[in-house]
Specification:
Order of helices and strands: EEHHHEEEEEHEEEE
Helix content: 10-25%
Strand content: 25-35%
Strand order of the largest sheet: 7-11-10-9-8
Structural class: alpha+beta
Distance between the termini: 34 Å
Length: 215
């Protein structure tokens, strides 16, 4: 399970790992893999079992502790007794995590796939990508679509708010595509009308976005 990248940004620690092992090999990294094996069997999907196990292994590698991830009713993860806000994401073959001592944070990772084109009308408005119709079939357009979805996932995680419609409540300002860069997102779901500075990176196999709350 090679560490693909680890970095610090905004006072948070972030990391992406490429999952190359099976679940049995990952379980060997726990002091008592049998305990987690019993828990993970409650997850029906074998791929989800692998992803959830890989996230825990990555957190152990970063913190030196075996941490039990719990979830608030909204779905936002937390760790009992761990004085940090955390965020996790997983996609085909990769897992990503981040943690910060005081701010809510979000990270999202999405593998490179054409499938996002089929649902673009559900999460991208014309004013977000005014050039889309001219470049709809280009690789750069696909990466932008993936980044729009990923950035909105990241913002949603930070908001910690129910009933958020990606098309109606979230907006990504137009941005120039780079291998690594930043974009600005806005939400109109809450009274705060928050603006988010979202960082991103493009990899041949995925895109990743991450951000922090302002307070």
């Amino acid at each position: 399970m090679p560490l693909l990248r680890k970095w610090e940004d905004g006072g948070a620690v972030w990391a992406i790992w490429k999952v190359t092992e099976g679940i049995d090999e990952l379980l060997e990294r726990f002091s008592d893999g049998a305990v987690w094996r019993k828990e993970v069997r409650q997850i029906r999907s074998a791929s989800r079992q692998l992803e959830c196990t890989a996230v825990r292994v990555l957190l152990k590698e970063l913190t030196g502790s075996e941490l039990d991830i719990l979830h608030y009713p909204s779905g936002r993860p937390y760790i009992a007794g761990f004085p940090f806000h955390i965020t996790v994401s997983h996609t085909k073959g990769y897992v990503a995590v981040g943690y910060h001592p005081s701010l809510r944070i979000g990270i999202d990772i999405e593998y490179y796939s054409e499938r996002v084109r089929k649902v673009v009308s559900r999460f991208v408005r014309p004013d977000e990508m005014p050039e889309r119709e001219r470049n709809e079939d280009s690789p750069s357009c696909l990466y932008k679509l993936l980044l729009h979805w990923s950035a909105k996932e990241t913002i949603y995680k930070i908001m910690d708010c129910e009933e958020v419609d990606f098309l109606e409540h979230l907006r990504i300002r137009p941005f120039a595509l780079q291998d690594e860069g930043g974009l600005v997102g806005e939400e109109c779901r809450t009274d705060d009308l928050q603006t988010f500075s979202v960082r991103y990176m493009i990899h041949p196999g995925f895109v990743c976005t991450w951000s922090l709350s302002e307070k």
